[in-house]
What we know:
- By secondary structure, this protein is an alpha+beta fold.
- It has two domains: 264 residues, FAD/NAD(P)-binding domain (3-Layer(bba) Sandwich); 164 residues, no CATH class.
- Helices cover 31% and strands 22% of the residues.
- The protein contains 13 helices and 21 strands.
- Strands 12-15-14-13-16-17 form a six-stranded antiparallel beta barrel.
- Flavin-adenine dinucleotide binds next to helix 1, strand 2, helix 2, strand 7 and helix 7.
Amino acid sequence: MPPWPQCLLQPTLTTARRATAFSRTTCLSSIPASPAYEQGQHEEEPSLVVVGGGAAGVYASIRAKTLAPRLNVAVVEKGRFLSKVKISGGGRCNVTNGHHIEPMGLARNYPRGDKELRGSFFTTHGPQDTMRWFTDHGVDLKTEDDGRVFPVTDNSASVVDCLLNEARRLGVSLQAGKAVSSASVAQDGKFVLKVEKRTSDFVDYINANYVLVATGSSQQGYSIAAQLGHSIIAPVPSLFTFKIADKRLADLAGVTFPIVKAKLKLDGVQKSVPELTQTGPMLVTHWGLSGPVVLRLSAWGARELHQCNYQGKLVVDFVPDIHIEDVKRILFQYKDQHAKHKVNNTFPTEFGLVKRFWRFLLEQESLNGDTHWASMPNNHLNAIALRLKQWMFEIVGKGQFKDEFVTAGGVPISEVSLGTMESKKQPNLFFAGEVLNVDGVTGGFNFQNAWTGGYIAGTSVGTLASTSNLSEQQSCLQL
Ligand SMILES: Cc1cc2nc3c(=O)[nH]c(=O)nc-3n(C[C@H](O)[C@H](O)[C@H](O)COP(=O)(O)OP(=O)(O)OC[C@H]3O[C@@H](n4cnc5c(N)ncnc54)[C@H](O)[C@@H]3O)c2cc1C
């Protein structure tokens, strides 16, 4: 633990004093409900410092302050508060998912966390609780057909304003434009956080009884966690599209397949991972493949794809509900029944294909579209059936999905008690949100992780603080 670093403080700055909110010496002094810190008075240290003003941090601060109104709570945010919430969901903010209410099913949407999050995590505060919280605080929500939940305004500002107004109303000190650059623990067990401003020489040190690290995927957040004794699972991107080598695919850009079954095959990945096969909608883009199926595969295979430098194979079954033999039978039947029709214009509706894709298939077989079904060679029919059932695409890189991504990796879940979000390495240290090695597929699951983790961490600190406050008051009375 470094000595109390007075010498590093800028002369113009008020030196932050030790956090005393719950020590015996303060039992006769009053602790302001609204921290003076924000007004620059520094009369009392915030006792909970939340590092990171994203979804997890702000939600946690509100919860802690609600449970323990006398607790000094400050959220230190290096950029703008809730900036990801603002841009999320294309500016609409996909708050949570309304189709996966039950914890087991919900947890399956987290490639990192699917086993650990099956327990009490979502039971404590799941999507329904999140929805209720926002509705109770004036944000009306709607659930779309695919389960994604948005504010009825279709504007993420509703969510941002609600959270910030509530935090301010409760007296949470919101410190924007300041980054926590390092953290340590003093001999008395309190945290010492170094706070810097990017835009000036500002350096300050603040003490805290409790610290919540909710820094998302920021490198600085990982290094704070490491300084406080945690290991970090190397971060890699998740939720991306696949770049495909086949230039001919560009002809199909914009075509959507309502349901395909796609299997990701990666060199060196020997074990059969059931999640590396996904069924659902797929979209062809100018550079490759996208849509829910591809995004889910990118998430489940995030680490392996990173290892393979985003090279691999994708085997797509375009008619997953029809057996290969039935596909052949349907094609041969069609040939018999539509002998006089041109293959370009008419094809079996059972496959649910769009005309552009059917013509694309014919081109792959070098078939003239003006050919009549009667003269369609049987080997070509077999080849088309095979392509429909297992078309192999070469993945050559990763693309971006509407700028949306999430990071796999961070603080291992095993180093945190999920019932409290407290560190198993350092008492009174908490984690929530994407800083942990938890990430979900698209659909509102990543925010749900942030809300749930934030809520649990806020509950823990709020409860600890009010309990400790009570016992102090009791010991004061006895003196
Ligand atoms: C473009 C985009 C769209 C998305 N859309 C959705 C969506 O619609 N639905 C969904 O569920 N998920 C979505 N996600 C994912 C979701 O935004 C994240 O999973 C979620 O924001 C994580 O919340 P968090 O609070 O853990 O981290 P963040 O929201 O990343 O917040 C962390 C905060 O900590 C701050 N910080 C970091 N280090 C420090 C430091 N040292 N000192 C002070 N502050 C620090 C950062 O500036 C940041 O504001 C989207 C992601 C992106 C990039």
